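Predict structure. Chain length: 361.
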Amino acid sequence: IGIGSTVDSGTNNFGQVLYVNPHQVFSGNTEACRIKIGLDGSIVVTLGSSPQGQGHETTTAMVIADDLNLPPDMITVRTGFDSSWNTYSGLSGTIASQFAVTGLSAAHGAALKLKAELLRLAAHTLQAAEDQLEIGVGAMGPEVRVVAEPERAINFWMLSNLANANISNVPESLRDINLNVMDVYKPPFEPVDVEKKIGNQTLTYAPQIHIAVVEVDRTTCQPKILDYAVVDDCGVAVNPKIVAGQVHGATCHGIGAAMQEAFQFDESGSLITATFTDYAPITAINMPPLKTAATSTPSPFSFNGAKGCGEGGGGPLHCISAAVQDALHSEGVIVTESHNSPSILMEALRAPNRAQVVARA
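Prediction complete.
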């Protein structure tokens, strides 16, 4: 039985290329968001990300709805990356666990711009000061109303038609209002010192610590996880359920890579583990119980202190290898691979000189 642990700092990899190649064009992660009020009063958001299940649509709707004092189900979020219609910046994309910082900060910025336009136009229409108005849901959908007299209200579709169709009733001073706004989040990166190899090319650090207790069967060399725990720090969680899902999912796949799933080739170089019939993938059936906890160190760079949470999937590889090393240390085995299948461990135990086991990968 052995105990292993590891910490993933949650940094990015792409930014480090500047230390190797100072001529590489890279100056920080930007992200864009556009929000438009349609002529029917609908609220449509476009992003530059292409989520594969991370919940960008859900969290974006939550942030914008909170800024506009509306329920999230009134916000339509369109993701994807098609340069012919999508809103995007030079570094848009679902990469580096950046969305909670860059994408949601852009969504927040766009929501504030839209709110300002809505209040300006409604103040003129309702003949009230902007600080006397609020956004909410009325009998005909989202509206702007006078706080002290909620019956004095104008809904979003009327405001959109004023701004984009019936402009003859809008004074010249308000004709810059389109209710179609865009915000680009620009992080405060500075050029690195390529001479001294000093600089910060990672905006936030979202660490995870993984701890495992692993038992290795003396006869079969089958490793078995007896206990596993993860603690993550993603700053201020926008949606705790999504964070929990990402932590569980990433850890699950990491455990699969560490113990069950690997690229294996025959002597001719042909892949022999190409399908699920060739190896057993990690599933809910063979996934060990997982204990999770969270701590929060807010980021000063995102609008609400959020950080990413998608970089912990590599934690199990080192964590389990460390636990196996601890379990087999007394046998003179040096664990040199991130994948620890029974066959690999049995070969290591049978090596003539266990202290000089050479890695194959």
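Summary: The longest helix spans residues 99-126.
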